[in-house]
């Protein structure tokens, strides 16, 4: 058991955003003087076989056949959550969490994924550890909610209003913005050679998150490859199948393919138009650079809700078919009114102080709790 103060951050590997948020928070806690900050993929550690199956289903959730199943799960559990699903959900990972608490003796727990085992354990007096939740989307599903969560940190007033409609007390909700990696907060020197790109061409970046879930990309690449005023950077992430599938474009000087890129800020600094799926963290990182964004037809669930929010803000474009997508790309590149409007609206999503604000608020809240406990003693 550790003697110094420690923080336990619980997350899950269902999309890069949850993990990246956990890592960003951990870095900031360490800056604040916390030596022991541990990140745990709770479900991955508690149920490795089930977790592997769920990862596979997540990938298929973006396919033509898997999409209806994920839609039924996401919107179906929205309705079922108030009918006992949350009660079942709070027992998942409980044994593993108790072992982690015994090992690290955290002064607080932070979650970046809907994990109810931590707030549920607070019902035991010996395990009454304050639990804070950072919601990593521009929408919120009822599964994020548990009555024993101390505080929710959310991206926008829209998410706050949604939580209130679900019965969460206003004083428990802090509109902080989404925390993104600190490397995005600094001016990036443009380095075209790093990606073998030309400074004399407009750059279109196409990405599908860490899993590289890019739908039906080849017709688009075939069209763009004929325009020598453009260059396309396709980020395949950890999708080796997509990377190998696009090998045939390597001889084309306009099309550049990449695997997982750890320093996306370097590529974003060269990007004139971003075509991406609507993962909240990727969108927020793009907002840091005020990039004109076109959203792939979103998968059902949180990505669809994120897309709807951005489209309502007129902070991104979408499309109905390949011809429409091509037109939208050219609008982002050459129509100044479109570029300026999208850049202005998307930039409103970025708050460079989101992460330090969240951590400082948690520490203040924790201090108040400790003070009250001392007075009672």
Provide a descriptive summary of the structure in words.
With 377 residues, the chain is α/β, with parallel strands linked by helices. The chain is 44% helix and 13% strand. It has 16 helices and eleven strands. The protein has helices at residues 16-31, 42-46, 48-60, 67-80, 85-89, 94-104, 117-121, 157-165, 218-224, 240-245, 264-268, 280-288, 302-312, 322-334, 336-347, 354-376, and strands at residues 6-11, 36-41, 108-111, 131-134, 151-154, 173-175, 202-207, 230-235, 255-258, 273-276, 293-295. The protein has a six-stranded parallel beta sheet with strand order 2-1-3-4-5-6, with helices on both faces. The chain has a five-stranded parallel beta sheet with strand order 9-8-7-10-11, with helices on both faces. β7 (202-207), α9 (218-224) and β8 form a beta-alpha-beta unit. α1 crosses α16. The chain is elongated and about 70 Å long.
Task: Describe what is shown at a glance.
The protein is an alpha/beta fold and 377 residues long.
Instruction: Give the helix level as a range of percent.
Output: 40-55%
State the major sheet. 6 strands, parallel
Strand segment count: 11
Separate helix tally? 16
As residue ranges, the low-confidence spans are: none
Determine the N-to-C terminus distance: 24 Å
Radius of gyration: 22 Å
Strand content range: 5-15%
Would you tell me the structural class of the helices and strands?
alpha/beta
Average of pLDDT: 86
Within the largest sheet, what's the order of strands?
Answer: 2-1-3-4-5-6
User: What characteristic shape results from the CA principal axes?
Assistant: elongated
H/E series: EHEHHHHHEHEEHEEHEHEHEHEHHHH
Oligomer: single chain
């Amino acid at each position: 058991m550790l003697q110094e103060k420690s923080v336990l951050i619980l997350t899950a590997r269902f999309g890069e955003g949850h993990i990246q948020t956990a890592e960003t928070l951990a870095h900031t806690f360490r800056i604040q003087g916390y030596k022991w900050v541990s990140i745990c993929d709770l479900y991955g550690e508690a149920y490795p076989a089930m977790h592997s199956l769920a990862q596979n289903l997540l990938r298929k959730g973006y396919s033509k056949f898997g999409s209806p199943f994920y839609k039924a799960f996401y919107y179906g559990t929205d309705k079922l959550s108030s009918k006992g699903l949350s009660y079942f959900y709070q027992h998942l990972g409980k044994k593993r969490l108790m072992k982690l608490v015994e090992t690290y003796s955290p002064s607080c727990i932070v979650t970046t994924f809907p994990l109810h085992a931590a707030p549920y354990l607070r019902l035991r007096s010996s395990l009454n550890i304050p639990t804070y939740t950072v919601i990593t989307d521009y929408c919120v599903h009822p599964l994020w909610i548990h009555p024993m969560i101390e505080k929710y940190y959310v991206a926008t007033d829209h998410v706050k209003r949604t939580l209130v409609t679900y019965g969460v007390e206003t004083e428990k909700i802090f509109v902080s913005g989404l925390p993104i990696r600190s490397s995005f907060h600094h001016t990036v020197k443009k380095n075209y050679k790093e990606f073998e790109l030309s400074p004399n061409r407009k750059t279109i970046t196409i990405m599908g998150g860490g899993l590289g879930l890019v739908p039906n990309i080849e017709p688009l690449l075939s069209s763009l490859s004929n325009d020598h005023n453009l260059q396309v950077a396709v980020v395949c992430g950890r999708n080796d199948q997509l990377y190998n599938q696009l090998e045939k474009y390597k001889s084309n000087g306009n099309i550049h393919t990449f695997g997982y890129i750890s320093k996306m800020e370097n590529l974003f600094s060269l990007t004139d138009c971003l075509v991406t799926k609507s993962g909240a963290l990727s969108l927020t990182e793009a907002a840091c650079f005020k990039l004109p964004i076109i959203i792939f037809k979103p998968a059902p669930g949180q990505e669809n809700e994120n897309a709807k929010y951005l489209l309502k803000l007129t902070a991104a474009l979408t499309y109905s078919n390949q011809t429409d997508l091509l037109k939208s790309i050219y609008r982002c590149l050459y129509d100044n009114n479109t570029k300026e409007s999208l850049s202005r609206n998307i930039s409103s999503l970025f708050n460079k102080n989101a992460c330090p604000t969240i951590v400082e608020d948690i520490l203040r809240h924790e201090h108040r709790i400790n003070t009250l406990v001392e007075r009672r003693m």
